[in-house]
Amino acid sequence: MKIINPAFYRYQALETTEYIKEFYDLVKSVGADAQHANVLTLFNELTPLCKLLFTIAYSSRELPLTKELKALDLARDRAYSGVRSCVAKLQYYYKPAVQQAAAQLAAIFKRYPRANSQNYDAETSDITEVSDALLTADNLAALRAIDEGHDLFVAWVKELVDRNNDFRKKMEQRYEEQAAQTDTPNIIRTRAAAVVLVKKILERIGGSTNAGLNPDLFPKLQEALNIMAQKYNTRAKERLARQNPEKTS
Predict the structure, then answer these.
(1) How many domains does the chain have?
(2) How many angstroms separate the CA atoms of 77 and 74, rounded?
(3) CB 3.0 to 4.6 Å from 206: which of 3, 38, 123, 160, for a disulfide?
(4) Domain ends where: 111, 144, 168?
(5) What is the predicted pLDDT for the residue at 102?
(6) Are residues 146 and 211 in the same domain?
(7) What are phi and psi of 105, to 5 degrees?
(8) What does the alpha-carbon distance between residue 198 and residue 232 come to, in Å, rounded to a whole number?
(9) What is the pLDDT of residues 80-138, one digit of tens each?
(10) Residue 248 placed within a domain
């Protein structure tokens, strides 16, 4: 299986650290098979670098939200919970067409059972995926079907999109400010060294399907790493598109 490489050149400092953490935890969770001789040496070199990076980067994330961020988080939670609960109830509406449309929309929410009850970054990502799905052509038609021509739910979903975007922008600004305070030359060097090791490990994992590793488990690791890289690459591309609307390629 071909390994999809993370586009580190597009990532912000904190995005890079987040990717490294998720990569480290994923490879470690697989255990001995992933830490085969051709990976283990590099993984052991990566461990102390990760401990330093995570200690510095995530200490700033434990800071409480500002009043503005709390208000934005509450606004998006209310919009999300409101749309989700009403859609769920409309599955029992007396008109079959509304029931069917509501069931179609409820299936989207079921794919994200913890969307508004997890850490802020994961919540932002999940709510974005939910709202994007709700606004596709088929699901827009379903929203209008349960509205019966009033466009109440379409407006409600757009309110969710706006409040979620407001929250994301403020959090990105906060992370940039915090990164500027904590990104010492030592941390920059440490992160760069970790990136080099991650790339080397990915090369070995990508070329090691016949290296004596578990034939059932190892392809699953490769697939999980590809999904993770796609997620971070897409997130970075979308952020850059928001910052530079004329340069979306």
Answers:
(1) 2
(2) 5
(3) 3
(4) 168
(5) 96
(6) no
(7) -75, -35
(8) 15
(9) 999 999 999 999 999 999 999 999 999 999 998 878 777 787 788 889 889 999 999 99
(10) no
